[in-house]
Amino acid sequence: MTDDTDGDSEEHSDEAARPTPALTASDASATATPCIGVCYFPEHWPRERWETDVEQMAEAGIEVVRMAEFSWGRLEPERGAFDFEWLDTAVSLLGDAGIDVVLCTPTATPPKWLIDEYPEILQEEPDGTTREFGSRRHYCFNSPVYREESKRVARRMAEHYADVDAVVGWQTDNEYGCHHTVRCYCDDCAAAFREWCRDRYESVDDLNETWGTTFWSQQYGSFAALQPPRHTAAEHHPSRLLDYARFANASVVDYNEMQADVLREANDEWFVTHNFMGHFDTLDAFSVSESLDFATWDSYPTGFAQDRNTESVTEDRLRAGDPDQVSLNHDLYRGPAGFWVMEQQPGDVNWPPRCPQPGEGAMRLWAHQAVAHGANVVSYFRWRRCRQGQEQYHAGLRKHDGSPDRGYEDAARAATEFESLGDLDGVDAPVALTFSYDDLWALAEQPHSPDFDYWGLVGAFYRALRARGVQVDVVEPATDLDGYEAVVAPTLHLADESLATRLESYVDDGGHLLLGPRSGYKLPGNRLQSDLAPGPLASLVGGHVDQHESLPESVDTTLTYRGDAYDYRTWAEWLRPETADAVGEYTSGTAGGRPAVLDHVVGDGSVTYCGVWPESDLADALVTDLLDRGGVAYSDRLPETVRAAERDGHTWVLNFSGDPIEVDAPDDAEWQVGDASIPGYGVGVVGAAVADLSVQ
């Protein structure tokens, strides 16, 4: 190889609780010494360079390497002619250096010869356009041919490496659904959608009733008449869209489970994971994770701050990302076994609108942030900047000439610091925040305002918790909430009696719930409740929603909460208290004088219903009142560029600003990393409770 080679009561609920994944590998334990990893592509580089690469990885303290996620064309250049020698060599070099290897099934990039043989593998857009070969993620999850081909290549790889000690686990595929590829609209998907609906509904009449297809004469006479929601003149029926989103997600779940089963058949001591993405809309990570031992995700803070954020893009966010946006994803993907960051941004990247250099030390800061939120491995993408293909403008830990890049020293320093911290238990979060992909999908179909964004609403409440240094578990609404002192539900848009019963039990037994707007508006089938919102949650809330409105920035949006004045945005509900007390009321607009926030005592617990999208000060007031009722300790309110997170007796103070900060800590508190003077884009770790710290 050379250097240049290359019926309302009949509504269907998805609220059944999911099982906790069973771990099968000690490396997946939530108690571990965090370590640094890297993603490596030996096939991109001359063979004579590989040994040097591995030596330099070891010198940097790298303990895990991920490989082969895009290697199908290299592993099988033509049907049946497998070439494992090059990958065997790389695995052997890494194993000899004491570095663990995570291999990937290479199914994200089916090779050209396979597409030529079976062009029906390719996905189709809603308008029928084929997603052609020439990039990645061009396959259909419901193609029977591709499922068999995926199983074949995964089995061949798994059997080949089944007895290789250096291989400790596997990543299935790569970034399911990236580039809007969860949902395909081809004939294979049409057939699979019909079968999915047959399994979900007792009859086509049941489907018609659940969806409400009498609107615009959209009734179906048989399941065979169903089609994917392809291009139409006007908007699609929202219930059809929601079920198609569920179906497409279920297709990925099934495809992933197939791969995981193949891998475990070869070696049941391997862990199996997948690398999800940040603020990703179309894939329910909870359901995909059922067949994984733990989740990983790919973290690119400066890119995310630009292309998927409702907050302003400040210079600090361009240099170090939005800390709460990144942390929300850490907490979303953290399970009982912790989580990994499989791809951590190593420097400048190629895909956002603009690609500024990260702040000095930011690559180290991000690694510590992940560990503070429960990560056991932080793996940078990639080892070297690539000289070919679509990602030539994506940095690595080393430059394309092999010399160290800015992220290399950051990664090496983080590795040394993690080793000094030793084994860490997982995060013990006192507060749960509910997150529902069904709600996300339903609200995305009918946002009722160009400014209404599910991630943004969730973020408003999440930011308030993180600004007080409170660790948070992000959970499905169906999760058992009994272990949490307090629960924040930014919205529970689709609700049924079973959800209401579980929440009532939690609150009645002494739990404290903060519930946000647009809750209980719809049944799980995505049609309005027969009762006024919040529907089945009304007795829990102690009132109803009389009216709602969505408002632009140009309109004055103010209210009082417990006598103090606050701002809100985007969404407002005029509430009608019945057994609850009105503790907030509007002071502007047509809503002036009407209730906006309700408090309700239920059994030994309490419920606060906030009928607006709160701005930061109101969110802080609501959250601190909730934490006080739940007896949860919290810090002084932190600056928006500073965050603190507690894990196993250590508190990380993370500075996402270019300016230095000073931390006041108890006199007997020991600093394990850094000290009380934290530079711009720096981090300190201290043996003290977060509530005992303050930031100057």
Would you write up a description of this structure?
The chain is of the alpha/beta class and 696 residues long. Among the domains are: 431-630, Class I glutamine amidotransferase (GATase) domain (Rossmann fold, 3-Layer(aba) Sandwich), CATH 3.40.50; 642-695, Immunoglobulin-like. It has 19 helices and 27 strands. The strands form 4 sheets. Strands 10, 11, 12, 13, 14, 15, 16, 17, 18, 19 and 20 form an 11-stranded mixed sheet that branches. Strands 5-4-3-2-1-9-8-7-6 form a 9-stranded parallel sheet. It has a 4-stranded antiparallel sheet with strand order 21-22-26-24. β8 (339-344), α13 and β9 form a beta-alpha-beta unit. The chain is globular, with a radius of gyration of 26 Å. It starts with 34 loop residues before the first strand and ends with a strand. 54% of the residues are buried.
Q: Which key terms come to mind for this protein?
A:
globular, Immunoglobulin-like, 30% helix, 696 residues, Rossmann fold, alpha/beta, disordered N terminus
